[in-house]
């Protein structure tokens, strides 16, 4: 739980609700990136979640959650 992955189901913490479109449908999950797995200058911990809808009303939702031990 909490590793980087594409597709499937996100490892969302209980405090985050799954994002919905304006019509009330779930926005499809694209990927989650565990920043602790990458050599980067942004932060050494936390997860970025990407949700993308490319249908009738394209939209994207991005969540950042820093405390991955709360997943």
UniProtKB/TrEMBL annotation:
InterPro entries per UniProt: DUF1963 (IPR015315), YwqG-like_sf (IPR035948)
Keyword Transmembrane helix: yes
Transmembrane segments: 47-65
Protein keywords: Membrane, Transmembrane, Transmembrane helix
Domain of life: Bacteria
Keyword Transmembrane: yes
Protein name: PF09234 domain protein
């Amino acid at each position: 739980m909490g590793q980087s992955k594409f597709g499937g189901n996100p490892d969302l913490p209980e405090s985050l609700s799954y994002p919905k479109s304006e019509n009330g449908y779930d926005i499809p999950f694209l990927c989650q990136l565990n920043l602790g797995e990458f050599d980067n200058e942004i932060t050494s911990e936390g997860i970025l979640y990407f949700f993308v809808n490319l249908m009738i009303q394209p939209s994207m939702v991005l969540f950042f959650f820093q405390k991955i031990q709360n997943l």
